[in-house]
What does this fold into?
Amino acid sequence: MVDNIRLVDVTKRFGEVIAVNRLNLEIKQGECFSFLGPSGCGKTTTLRMLAGFEDLDEGEMYVGDTLVSSSIKKYYLQPEKRGFGMVFQAFAVWPHMNVYENVAFPLRVKRISREEVDRRTKEALANTRLSGLEKSFPGELSGGQQQRIALARAIALNPRVLLLDEPLSNLDPHNRESMRFEIKDLQRQLGVTILFVTHDQSEAMALSDRMLVMRDGLVQQVDTPVNIYYNPANKFVFSFIGLSNFVPVEMSDGKVYVDGAKGAGSLNKGTEADKSVFKEGKALVAFRPSDVVFEEEGPIAGRVIRRTFLGELVDYRIKVGEHDIRVQKNRQAFQLKEGDNCRMGFKKLLWYER
Amino acid sequence: MSRLIAARGSGKKFGGAEIVLALSIAVLVVIVAVPVLMILYNAFTVDGKLNIGDVVDIIKEPDTYMALRNSLIIALGVTGLGTFLGVLFSYLVARTDLPFKSLMKLLFIVPFMLPSFIGAIAWKVLLSPRGGYINKMFMDIFNTSRPLFNIYSVAGIIVVETMYLFPFVFMQVSAALERMDPTLEESARISGVPLGTIMRKITFPLIMPSIVAGALLIALYSLAHFGVPAILGTEIGFYNIPTLIYRKIHSSGGSFASIRTGTVLATILIASAALILYLQKLVLKSGRYSIIAGKSMRPMLMKLRRSKYPILLLCFVYIFITVILPTATIMLVGALKTYGLPFELKNMTLRNFKYILNWRMTRQAVSNSLLLSLGAAFVTMLAGTIISYVIVKMKVKGKFLLEFLGVLPFSVPGTVIALGVILTWSGRFGINLYNTTWIIFVAYIARYMAFSIKSNSAALEQVHDSLEEAARSCGATHWQSMKDIVLPLIKPGMVAAFFLILLPALRELTTSVLLYGPRTRTIGVAIYALNEDGETVLACALATFALLIIVFGEIVIRRIISAKEGGPSGG
Amino acid sequence: MAQIVLKNIWKSYGKKDVVKDFSMTIDDGECFTFLGPSGCGKTVILRMIAGFERPDRGEIYIGDRLVASGEKHYSLPPESRDIGVVFQDYAVWPHKTVFQNVAYPLQIKRVHKEELKQRTNTAVAQVGLKNYEKRYPYQLSGGQQQRVALARALVPRPSVLLLDEPLNNLDANLREEMRFEIKILQREYGVTVLYVTHDQDVALAISDRILVFDKNGSIRQVGRPEELYENPNDSYIYKFMGVSNFLPADVRDGKAYLKGTGDLISDQALVNNGDMTLASRPSDVILSRENGIVAKVMRVAYLGSNFDYRLSLGAFEVRAQMDTHDALAQRLIFEPGEECRITLNKITWFDAEQAKEEVL
It folds into this structure.
């Protein structure tokens, strides 16, 4: 049975604000799918609608062929009947139950045999590296361990779909990184569909098979992480997904120059400008700090006004005319000093309207 | 030494911090500790010698142990009933889709503002076995000589007290339910756990500490409650500890034997109050889960479906019976030409109100109460601010003594404070305040100091040390940083403390009833005495004024507090 | 502008010595960072310089002036030390507007009205809060509140600016932005900065010199960021400064073999024979299909500008980072489960025993 999740024209309003605006989406079974966007973009609301905690103002939601939410039919399958697992930002582990009870409690309610409850609880705890902590109470454990309890509790139920609402935001950076991989491993091992809500682009990129970028309730792009990084649908996606430079440019005699810096050189050397975005000869060019190459034959000249050693990377601020460009190079790469003049080439340029 | 002051003094043994500390301790010792110690001293000694045998004899007297038993029965009944009602209503208001919830929430805590002894008078008017209006109506309609309900009974006392004390549980539990992270319940739901099971296995265990804390507060107050048993119990010779103390001292005109009995009874009250507070501390410590929400989300609401409107009706009936009916009764009786007449327009008059306004006794009572409560509120607020500053902000050895003395009055019932004040300020230490307003004033300060310290400490804890340190590093001296940073930030806490003292002091009865002299009646005493003398109509007329003053005060404080919340706040 | 001199400072709380015989000179106009795990005493030292705590023993000078002496029981109050302090929790005054917050130090100094207005406005503009002057702190984001604190600390032109984990409560993007801004402000004001943090990323970006503490409060190394990163005194510093791979090796006559295998990792191991530990950064692990020792890909995470690989070398795990453009150009993208080959570009050698020390 294929349990794809389908959202059809889903809309949700809070008073005047449209939290989610006509969202259409299909998530494949077994996929690790992320909802990425700044806070208030509607990603958590979408997840909570899927879980059944929020009603829809418009639209329908299906899991496989089963209708789970419909605004027209006023039909909402109760959250407890949806067969989902969910992990929350604030852990939501029950402080009055020990680790074992936290995982076993929802199973017991299901009237499964005692041996089965015990077996599944122990298995889930082993899968989340919590064996040996069965008797501990959540208050005695670290944030990372508490979030593992929540994860164990969710997977012990063998859910069709695992909903993760910013599960790593309350963890310290170290735990955040290792939990990321653990979640990914669990997903592979169990073959469960994962819906992952986050505002952290590196988290979404590292985890997802596909991801959705959202802003003000509207879908910006749905694609694989690589495509989103390299072929962003618009300016917002480009700037949200990583460090970015936007430089105003002007076209004259078919050549593209940085605004007010004709002397610095023409940008079309080696790359082709997207002419369609130029309005009255003006446009924006965008590139990542890591996509700049220092090379003697580079088309654009600039001057290093600040160099900052960041460890693995060295961060430069380069002045081109009146504009600042940020460049990041690996520490082993060719280095410049503050005050040096340089020429730059670009691995990839994107063109946008001003 | 204070971090801030530590940096200033240079090796001196006694800096400013120590002087402030010493003064604060001195104030608390004189006002709070000495009266309590005097009670213990008088309870256990005769002519300066330890005498336990006498104590045992006193407890063995039937009067005494009956009062003990009665206090216990009332406390148990009120705590049980009040906890049940408090939990029920708080759940309805916080976790169901009941309509008019915010209005309801407000109405449920109204009884908290009203003086319970005035309520008791109202219920006496309505349900006294023969003269009560409801009972009379009932007997007329059903042509019987048995009353519907006799309010002069243990059950009557328990029911009336419960009406006024259940908000303790209601407020604690609704706060806990509102603060609780909704995802704790949602995570159970999405795991397939049915709603009923969630309530039993998740929600209730998590709010249990709040329930118990509220229940213990009810127990603390009802154990030492004076007003209701005094009005409804004395009639049938039913005494609890505070009313027995009052009777002993009043009937004997303050003889040594009666005071001694009083001190023994008071000691028992102190001990049980201390026990209750200790239990509360244990409960709060063992069950203090952090269940506070991170994101602000709406909790899931239980759909009441078909029972929605019946339950709504039930809530309104409850509010009608506990708030509106007694208040209206007081006002209507206050307007009767003679007590006992039916409520018809022809029997109504404004004469009583005019009389109250012109009568010297009542005018004096009103002005006494106003002056006493304003004065006590002001002085206690200021003293509380200084003491709290020492407790919260200064690192001085010996401040644990302050903390202890500061919360001590919390566990000392009003009756006990009155008794202690009599023992301390009747000339034994060279100062005799007996029969003057000052003795009530001193008692009020002792009684309300804990409120002030609590409110001020909470405000000061919001003012993080770094806010003061930031001012110091900006070049401000210690005094400047106090004036420019700390005081403006704790002002709301000080204002709150002022009103937290002013309003209860205005309607106070328990303490002043033991301390008043011929010219130093308070409003509470005046109403109580009028009622005792059978002047029910005048008592109700004066009570009407008292209610108006209290309601006005509550409205003012709400305005002030909500205006503060809108603007910039501390921390 | 002033240098800060700390001479043989001791400080204890109860029986615990938090600072033990600490001496250091922070040069005039320098941006100096105390980097260390929590509980190493770095904040206590900052608070002693500020005057919020007093040393039990030892002396502190700001410029030529003695500001604290444990032996003489002398401590100049904070308001007389000519310092600015920025706290982790912002500590902006909630009852004052942005303007009032920033103007307060000048008000205390009784600066003339016109000058006060002009200097406050300049400072507010410098931290990018122009047009926010009338707002109250609760109307600002965390980052904006921290900017107010920064402006307030700088407006009286103190000779020393003390920053106590000021970026801790900010999210990653803001932190990345603000560390550059603090550096710019420091240069503009020419103020001596002491910055306390446990975050090596911020320390590297902001400092002229860094002092690294271990958890016992001992000084492990003092130096410029690149010195610490490229020439660490020991494995502790190496681990502290960033993500690292540690592998045990058997060294025989300049040739290093992965312990327990015959795999040659390096033929330029100019260190003692026997058990050694080699360290390398993920970006120094070069992936290829032909050259080097065989490794198995465990996990791949795409991070945008690079791929993050976790590889297994028998029992050992190695992290590798590869630039996305290079990977695409050279068709070097590996899937989990695939085999690849690795060489190590830059190796740092440590004594096997010493390398076992944990950072936290």
Notes: The CA atoms of residues 303 and 318 of chain A lie 5 Å apart. Chain A touches chain C through 31 residues (CB under 8 Å). The longest strand of chain A covers residues 17-27.
